[in-house]
Amino acid sequence: MTPRRLESTTTVPRPLAETWDFFSRPENLEKLTPPEVKFEIVSPVAGQEMYEGMIVQYRVTPFPGFTADWVTEITHIRHHEHFIDDQRVGPFALWHHQHHFRSVSANVTEMRDILHYQAPLRFLGTIADKLFVHRQVKKIFTERERAIQRLFPEI
Description:
The protein is of the alpha+beta class. It is built from 3 helices and 7 strands. A 7-stranded antiparallel β-sheet has the order 1-7-6-5-4-3-2. A hairpin with a 2-residue loop joins strand 3 and strand 4. The protein is globular, with a radius of gyration of 15 Å.
Protein backbone atom coordinates (compact mmCIF):
# COMPACT_ATOMS: atom_id res chain seq x y z
CA MET A 1 0.00 0.00 0.00
CA THR A 2 1.24 3.45 -0.87
CA PRO A 3 1.07 5.94 2.01
CA ARG A 4 -1.94 8.26 1.95
CA ARG A 5 -1.60 12.04 2.13
CA LEU A 6 -4.18 14.30 3.76
CA GLU A 7 -3.93 18.06 3.86
CA SER A 8 -6.03 20.42 5.90
CA THR A 9 -5.88 24.19 6.36
CA THR A 10 -7.59 25.95 9.24
CA THR A 11 -7.74 29.61 10.16
CA VAL A 12 -7.39 30.35 13.86
CA PRO A 13 -8.63 33.83 14.88
CA ARG A 14 -5.69 34.43 17.21
CA PRO A 15 -2.16 35.85 16.90
CA LEU A 16 0.58 33.45 15.86
CA ALA A 17 2.25 33.40 19.31
CA GLU A 18 -1.01 32.48 21.08
CA THR A 19 -1.87 29.83 18.48
CA TRP A 20 1.62 28.34 18.71
CA ASP A 21 1.47 28.29 22.53
CA PHE A 22 -1.73 26.26 22.43
CA PHE A 23 -0.72 23.76 19.74
CA SER A 24 2.82 23.23 21.05
CA ARG A 25 1.52 21.75 24.32
CA PRO A 26 0.70 18.04 23.92
CA GLU A 27 -1.98 18.09 26.64
CA ASN A 28 -4.16 20.25 24.37
CA LEU A 29 -4.51 17.39 21.88
CA GLU A 30 -7.25 15.93 24.07
CA LYS A 31 -9.30 19.13 23.57
CA LEU A 32 -9.05 18.73 19.78
CA THR A 33 -9.82 15.02 19.45
CA PRO A 34 -13.37 13.67 19.09
CA PRO A 35 -14.62 12.12 22.35
CA GLU A 36 -15.35 8.74 20.72
CA VAL A 37 -11.61 8.32 20.05
CA LYS A 38 -11.14 8.26 23.87
CA PHE A 39 -7.78 10.00 23.52
CA GLU A 40 -5.78 9.86 26.72
CA ILE A 41 -2.22 11.07 27.25
CA VAL A 42 -0.36 8.64 29.48
CA SER A 43 3.05 10.31 29.69
CA PRO A 44 3.66 13.22 32.09
CA VAL A 45 3.67 16.18 29.67
CA ALA A 46 1.23 18.58 31.33
CA GLY A 47 2.53 22.13 31.31
CA GLN A 48 5.44 21.34 29.01
CA GLU A 49 6.04 22.93 25.64
CA MET A 50 7.15 20.31 23.15
CA TYR A 51 10.77 19.98 22.15
CA GLU A 52 12.67 17.95 19.56
CA GLY A 53 13.02 14.40 20.79
CA MET A 54 9.99 14.62 23.11
CA ILE A 55 8.22 11.27 23.39
CA VAL A 56 4.48 11.40 24.05
CA GLN A 57 2.50 8.28 24.96
CA TYR A 58 -1.25 8.02 24.40
CA ARG A 59 -4.02 5.50 24.61
CA VAL A 60 -6.62 5.80 21.86
CA THR A 61 -9.66 4.05 20.50
CA PRO A 62 -9.37 4.98 16.83
CA PHE A 63 -12.18 2.59 15.87
CA PRO A 64 -14.97 1.14 18.01
CA GLY A 65 -13.78 -1.96 19.84
CA PHE A 66 -10.08 -1.32 19.16
CA THR A 67 -7.93 0.39 21.80
CA ALA A 68 -4.27 0.96 21.10
CA ASP A 69 -1.22 2.40 22.77
CA TRP A 70 0.37 5.10 20.63
CA VAL A 71 3.82 6.62 20.99
CA THR A 72 4.92 9.63 18.96
CA GLU A 73 8.15 11.57 18.84
CA ILE A 74 8.42 15.27 18.09
CA THR A 75 11.14 15.07 15.46
CA HIS A 76 11.44 18.65 14.17
CA ILE A 77 10.50 22.07 15.50
CA ARG A 78 10.99 25.50 14.07
CA HIS A 79 9.51 27.81 16.70
CA HIS A 80 6.35 29.64 15.49
CA GLU A 81 6.67 27.94 12.06
CA HIS A 82 6.20 24.18 12.25
CA PHE A 83 6.61 20.96 14.15
CA ILE A 84 6.50 17.34 13.06
CA ASP A 85 5.40 14.29 14.99
CA ASP A 86 6.18 10.74 13.90
CA GLN A 87 4.64 7.58 15.28
CA ARG A 88 7.14 5.27 16.95
CA VAL A 89 4.63 2.66 18.20
CA GLY A 90 0.95 2.52 17.38
CA PRO A 91 -1.95 1.52 15.21
CA PHE A 92 -0.49 2.71 11.88
CA ALA A 93 2.34 1.34 9.77
CA LEU A 94 3.29 4.99 9.12
CA TRP A 95 2.20 8.28 10.71
CA HIS A 96 4.11 11.44 9.80
CA HIS A 97 2.23 14.61 10.73
CA GLN A 98 3.48 18.09 9.85
CA HIS A 99 1.89 21.14 11.52
CA HIS A 100 2.66 24.46 9.77
CA PHE A 101 1.78 27.90 11.16
CA ARG A 102 1.71 31.22 9.33
CA SER A 103 0.63 34.65 10.52
CA VAL A 104 -2.05 35.99 8.16
CA SER A 105 -2.56 39.21 10.11
CA ALA A 106 -2.00 40.51 13.63
CA ASN A 107 -4.91 38.42 14.96
CA VAL A 108 -5.20 35.55 12.47
CA THR A 109 -3.04 32.45 12.05
CA GLU A 110 -3.25 29.91 9.28
CA MET A 111 -2.53 26.37 10.38
CA ARG A 112 -1.82 23.79 7.70
CA ASP A 113 -1.54 20.09 8.44
CA ILE A 114 0.08 17.60 6.12
CA LEU A 115 -0.36 14.00 7.16
CA HIS A 116 1.19 10.94 5.56
CA TYR A 117 -0.16 7.71 6.98
CA GLN A 118 -0.37 4.07 6.10
CA ALA A 119 -2.67 1.47 7.59
CA PRO A 120 -0.97 -1.65 8.99
CA LEU A 121 -1.23 -5.24 7.75
CA ARG A 122 -0.30 -4.70 4.09
CA PHE A 123 -3.07 -6.11 1.87
CA LEU A 124 -5.59 -6.29 4.72
CA GLY A 125 -4.64 -2.73 5.69
CA THR A 126 -5.33 -1.57 2.14
CA ILE A 127 -8.82 -3.05 2.33
CA ALA A 128 -9.41 -1.62 5.82
CA ASP A 129 -8.20 1.80 4.63
CA LYS A 130 -10.69 1.77 1.75
CA LEU A 131 -13.53 0.55 3.98
CA PHE A 132 -13.10 2.76 7.06
CA VAL A 133 -9.60 3.94 8.07
CA HIS A 134 -9.35 6.81 5.57
CA ARG A 135 -12.85 8.00 6.44
CA GLN A 136 -12.06 7.89 10.18
CA VAL A 137 -8.80 9.84 9.77
CA LYS A 138 -10.60 12.50 7.70
CA LYS A 139 -13.34 12.66 10.35
CA ILE A 140 -10.76 13.30 13.08
CA PHE A 141 -9.46 16.29 11.09
CA THR A 142 -12.99 17.59 10.46
CA GLU A 143 -13.86 17.29 14.15
CA ARG A 144 -10.61 18.99 15.09
CA GLU A 145 -11.53 21.96 12.92
CA ARG A 146 -14.88 22.19 14.73
CA ALA A 147 -13.09 22.03 18.08
CA ILE A 148 -10.80 24.88 16.99
CA GLN A 149 -13.82 27.00 16.08
CA ARG A 150 -15.34 26.25 19.49
CA LEU A 151 -12.12 26.89 21.46
CA PHE A 152 -11.15 30.01 19.49
CA PRO A 153 -14.31 31.98 18.72
CA GLU A 154 -13.96 35.12 16.61
CA ILE A 155 -12.95 38.13 18.72
